[in-house]
Structures are given as structure tokens and as C-alpha cells.
Amino acid sequence: MDIEADLAISDNSRTVWSEDQFPVAELASALSLWLRLPDGERGNFTFDSMSYDVPGAVHITATDEGWRVGSVFATDAPSSPATWESLAPNLVEFIEVVRDGVTALGINPALIPGL
């Protein structure tokens, strides 16, 4: 699944990390599967992509303060903590935008599991 686009992880107006030509369809698929897990089984998210030598190009980590989004490529700059109620809708929106983009390219959107 090699559908790429520019990706930016933002925290309000601050860019936490960005990458040109990021495998967004692969990320959307992985996030969709992660979001479908029951709350008690979800745990942290670490994106393990065939495009990178190390896992964690994008990671979402639960902390005592809330969920933080970051990257192994920008370890000094994770996002501010967010509640699950504020983070989850943003992840769903990202997945839906990527699914729409995949569909517009004429590719079966089942490539990215529905929520």
C-alpha cells in the first residue's frame, strides 16, 4: 500500500513533526485497526511501516497527563497531552480524509478498514 502524501503532526500552531511523501494510506489503515480495539486492549500506538527502518515514525502514547502524539524522528517535541475524547475524532477525520483520497484515485477504499 504505497499511497503517499505530505503529513504533518501539529499541536495547535506548532508542528511536532512533518514528512513529505509519507505512506498515509498505510498509516490510516494501521490507525483504523488500532481504533477498533476495545478501550482496555488498545494500549499505545506505534506505526511500524515498511517505509522506515525503525518503528515509531508516528506514535501515540498514553501518559498520566493524557495522550501524546509524536515521532521517533522528533523525540524532543511530542504534542501536548490530549484527552481521548479530543484525540479520537481527529484520528477518525484523518482516516476518513485518506479513505476519500484513495477513493478519488479509483482505488478500493476497503484498503483502509472502516471504523
Automatic annotation (TrEMBL):
Name of the protein this chain belongs to: DUF7878 domain-containing protein
Domain DUF7878, residue spans: 1-99
Originating species: Streptacidiphilus jeojiensis
Pfam family, one: DUF7878
